[in-house]
Amino acid sequence: MKHFKTLSSYLEYLELPGPEHPMLSIYSASGDGFLPCPKASSPPITNNCYSISLKKIVTGDLNYGRTKYDFTNGVLIFLAPRQVLQWDNSVVFEQKGFSINFHEDFIKGTELVQQIKKYGFFSYSANEALHLSPKEERQIEMIVENIEIEYHNNQDEFSKDIIISQLSTLLKYANRFYERQFLNRKELSTSLLEKFNSQLSTYFDAGKLQTTGIPSVEELAVHLNVSQRYLSDTLKNETGKTSTEHLQLYLINEAKNILLKPHKSIAEVAYELGFEYPQYFSRLFKKKEGISPTEYREKYKMN
């Protein structure tokens, strides 16, 4: 797999104009202008850059989980360093909007280094992108215009700080708009939780927990056709619990049923639920329920 260490080499591969700054590039379509068009397709590649792009869909469908977007305006897509990128020409975008690319070293030594790690949307996949209302789209574009002014000006000692500050503001707005998107998708979030639990039930009923162990959240996300980070963020926003917490909750609920079968030892219960070590099962159970599996069995056993 080809990897691009510098911003210049990455943009050259995309067949885009070279950057004015060695670690930062901005392309925008202002007025009647159009964005430069990158190559139509690519096998899997990686690079050391962050990308923030506003695209306008012309043909093809971008999905939000398994549902279509509500809006038909701008789609904001975030990419992080070393993510595997691959695309073809099945989705056609109007060459309007903007594209910001910056090398990870561009923000080194600034507060943005830590802030950017908190934004889960850099780990979402393209079909979980942020779909903007016209008002939200304009707010983002205004911030990008400010960044672009500094980018094209004769840069001085203040330029980088101003650009970093504007990037931070852009990401804060994006985070707000994602919260809105989650809130507007309560039905989808509930459906996602139902599918999550259904997937676990399928594992359990097929005996896979016992034979192959507890599935990872990443495995479950793949079956649900969403990214791991998106799955956790969606469930957290809607239910207050992450995907890992829901996984543990499912296992504890199943454990309660099995524990009331007196012929099974605590170790057998643990192994049946996919735990490699019974001690870990006992610790998790007590952490979640406040009592040990043995104490639970004694408390609720049938007389």
Automatic annotation (TrEMBL):
The keyword tRNA processing does not apply. It holds the Pfam family HTH_18. The keyword Transcription regulation applies. GO terms for molecular function: DNA-binding transcription factor activity; sequence-specific DNA binding. Residues 198-299 form the HTH araC/xylS-type domain. It comes from the Bacteria. Keywords: DNA-binding, Transcription, Transcription regulation. PANTHER family: ARAC-FAMILY TRANSCRIPTIONAL REGULATOR (PTHR43280), TRANSCRIPTIONAL REGULATORY PROTEIN (PTHR43280:SF32). This is AraC family transcriptional regulator.
